[in-house]
Amino acid sequence: MKLNARIIFIISVLVICVIAINLAVYFQITEKSNNEQENMETVVDTNMLKENFNNIFQNQFNDQGNKVDITKIDAEKAIVDTSYKNQETIPNFYALNINIPYLNIDNSEAQKINEEINSLFYNKVSDILSNRSQYTIYNVVYQAYINDNILSLIIHATLKEGNNPQRVIIRTYNYNLSSNSNMGINEILEYRKISKEYTQKKINETIQSASENANKYQKLGYSMHLRNINDSIYLVDNTTVYFLGENKAFYILYPYGNLSYTSEVDILVI
User: Fold this and answer.
1) Number of compact structural domains in the chain
2) Can you give the residue range of the structural domain that contains 8?
């Protein structure tokens, strides 16, 4: 009986150890999965959203059913509306397809954003109309969303001047409608409950992949924008172009045409 009891005891200890090991592995895998997919239930298919990025621009405001109490400049218009529109083509001079938005919000911070938008996009239209020394193609489109109390506006421009390569220029604005203030990337991450460490990891993966592709195509003779994966522009805190899209999808963008003649854009969606 003593021998049987000892065997039963040993078997029981082994079973408990196996269960404990399995539970430890399970919780480790679960924790890792949770950390790597923080709040990912808000996004259905990030790869699809990335591939469909250029199709989101409808020059519209999508409140997604969110109702906010905000004082408008024009009560009859949407919170984001078109301030200037121009679809005009004059052969040998220019081709324009311009839709410039503005924040229809009666607040000094919102007006600063409107002034910046005009400076970046409308002033270029004025230059094109007054200076016809080279054939120019200029397109400006936008899209705006509200997620809870956060208004996100993204403006996308393509510019082709003479023989210069085409540029893609992108600006984004994320505006807290409750506090009437701009939101930094860390505030957006906190809202989405995404860690900075996870975000940095995904940025690094995106840029590494883009860098490898650029190097590969350059060797084949294509003109490519080469990435320096160690550049500080890829740090989370230095990232400036980002927005919340439909269903809280968080877009991080690196539009190199903002500073140089290229249409390349690296896109990450979380």
Assistant:
1) 2
2) 1-36
